[in-house]
């Protein structure tokens, strides 16, 4: 293992260890949690995993059928109405919005962090969720959900778990990006787990650069370097 110069060793160690598990949702979740350990050394991964497991258990206890549509409805009720998961529109550029322990505590965060929590809980109840690596606004794709012509559906956890048509998703991304999108088969691409982590790190890198936090900026570069090995 590399010895970090700027990144807190515990964050660097867990992040590097979980890179080997990035083919799983659990590995992605743990690697994303590791990013927060740089500034939140007191955070405990077992506590974060317990929160998402409890949310999944609550969803499962409510479902009394094998319908994916019913499962999705209860998932949204628990995450967005009961737990109150939502975007932090008042303090969008706060680094805490990218830190899983903070978001699980405040229930507010960036789109990419909220989608990660949504994905992890959804997977624990038997749904398949991908991140949509669209410009400016990260969203979720729920595979083969019922109710939308038998196709996958787009969900935006930042705005209360709103379910979008493809056209509505395109319009939301255009609004966020501030420019029209070039229509192609790749305009709603699924994010690989490596791309997911890289985008989280680049978001933090941008914030730390803009605010002159040089050590934190260099720490994020060290983590990015692990992804590029």
From TrEMBL:
InterPro entries attached to this UniProt entry: SirB1_N
Pfam assignment, any one: Transglut_core2
Superkingdom of origin organism: Bacteria
Record domain Protein SirB1 N-terminal: where: 50-201
Recorded family membership: Belongs to the UPF0162 family.
UniProt-recorded name of the protein: Protein SirB1 N-terminal domain-containing protein
